[in-house]
Amino acid sequence: MATIFETEYNWEPYLKYGTRQFVKRKTVIYNQGSIGDGFYYLHKGLVRIVTSTVKGRKRILNIVVPGQILGIQSLDQYAHFTTAVTVKDCVLYYFPRDQFKDLIMIYPDLRNLFAQTIIHKMRILLEGIKLNTLSSEQQIAILLLNIYDDFKNYKV
């Protein structure tokens, strides 16, 4: 059974409610620790999601591809626990928290999408923790499988 991230979800009806942003490569979209007040939909480009370790090192948690949303964890107006940085020039749509409430009222089916997205993000975080317990060879194997799963491409 395909997950919502393996099939393209049609965002076209919702884009008119967001603010389109053109963001250059290597631009920080939001910083870890900053208070969020909305979420983003990635229309074009790639975004790297990183977190800072206790020792101050950056650790990549995820790569967001077109058709996915990011920054959703801060809709509760708590601090972001990650930083989002563009890998390529991007086209993003920003949806403020209040707009999200209106969207849910107009399109109740979005609740399922957002619940699945939050579950997906939590799985990514748990996989990152689990990855640290594996040998280097096992870590590389897992990362290669993740690249295949995310990009549906056997070429690395």
From TrEMBL:
This is Crp/Fnr family transcriptional regulator. SUPFAM superfamilies: cAMP-binding domain-like (SSF51206). The keyword Signal does not apply. The keyword Transcription does not apply. Residues 20-121 form the Cyclic nucleotide-binding domain. Keywords: Activator. Pfam families: cNMP_binding.
